[in-house]
Amino acid sequence: MKPTPVKRILIVVAVLLALLLLMSSLAQAQAVQVTDDRGRVIKLAKPPERIVTLLPSLAETVCALGACQRLVGVDRYTNWPDGVKQLPQVGGGLDPNIEAVVALRPDVVLMATSSRAADRLQALGIPVVALEPKTHADVRRVLGKIGQLLGVHDAQQVWRGIDAGVAAAAQSLPPAARGLRVYFEVSPGPFGAGEGSFIGETLARLYARNILPATLGPFPKLNPEYVVRADPDLIMVGARSAQGLLARPGWDRLRALRDGRLCQFSAEESDVLIRPGPRMAEAARLMAACLQRHAPGGAR
């Protein structure tokens, strides 16, 4: 029996309502919301297609989550992976060129909480997500938040790879390479990496003993005499710090320098080591190789 006109109308209405509910559900599924490190809630109608990053580790995280093609601009220090070198640069992360950022028409800007640009960009109607990883837990959390923003289902897969890589680097170390007292210099100043920093946490997982306690902060500026008094077994420095170490007051007395227990990392290696992001497993391998090379009885 054929449906009556009234039934046909009801069927059509029911189908239309179902379609509307489906469309509404899809729209809600695409909407994204994230709370950044300032405690601000950022809502977007859909995952961003045009992203500007003002911190190298955040750009690297976006790429590690498979969304490198969404980057339309980066800060002047972002240089990995190679493809980002072709992107427009918008100045430094702390104080970028606002006009250059706006001209790129970003859906969102990812930056450090220490950047001075957030308020100005927000006043111009550009959503800002401020994230600043400083510890291993921060890196894991930031991965989750950027994954949430991008609509990536399992962003923590990247963290599991990092964690496994650091564990493998630690497992590779022979007993003689464990327990060395280490000074890691991040940049001239000198600024060191304390126990509470992501670098310090990696060193601890590699069984190294950091001469800079957590009470000094993650990256304290030091009096050079502090390192002299601590007299570490091994010194790790980046490319910018490698020159003039012996010219520092008292550093000619350091056993590590006298005996050649010094790892001088290249500019490219330094970038890997000082960025809290997807390449932390590679950083652990670099540190582990240094520790093994300068362990008692190791080949230097």
Radius of gyration: 25 Å
The proportion of residues forming helix, as a percent range, comes to 25-40%
Residues in β-strands, percent: 5-15%
CATH class of the largest domain: Alpha Beta
SSE sequence, one letter per element: HEEEHEHEHEHHEEHEHEHEHH
How does CATH name the architecture of the largest domain?
Answer: 3-Layer(aba) Sandwich
Number of helices: 11
Provide the descriptors you would attach to this structure in a database record:
300 residues; alpha/beta; Rossmann fold; four-stranded parallel beta sheet
Question: SSE layout and pairings?
Answer:
Elements: H1 5-30, E1 32-35, E2 41-44, E3 51-53, H2 56-64, E4 71-73, H3 98-103, E5 108-111, H4 118-123, E6 128-130, H5 136-150, H6 156-171, E7 181-187, E8 191-192, H7 198-205, E9 209-210, H8 224-230, E10 234-237, H9 255-258, E11 262-264, H10 267-274, H11 280-293
Parallel strand pairs: 3-4, 3-5, 5-6, 7-9, 7-10, 10-11
Antiparallel strand pairs: 1-2, 7-8
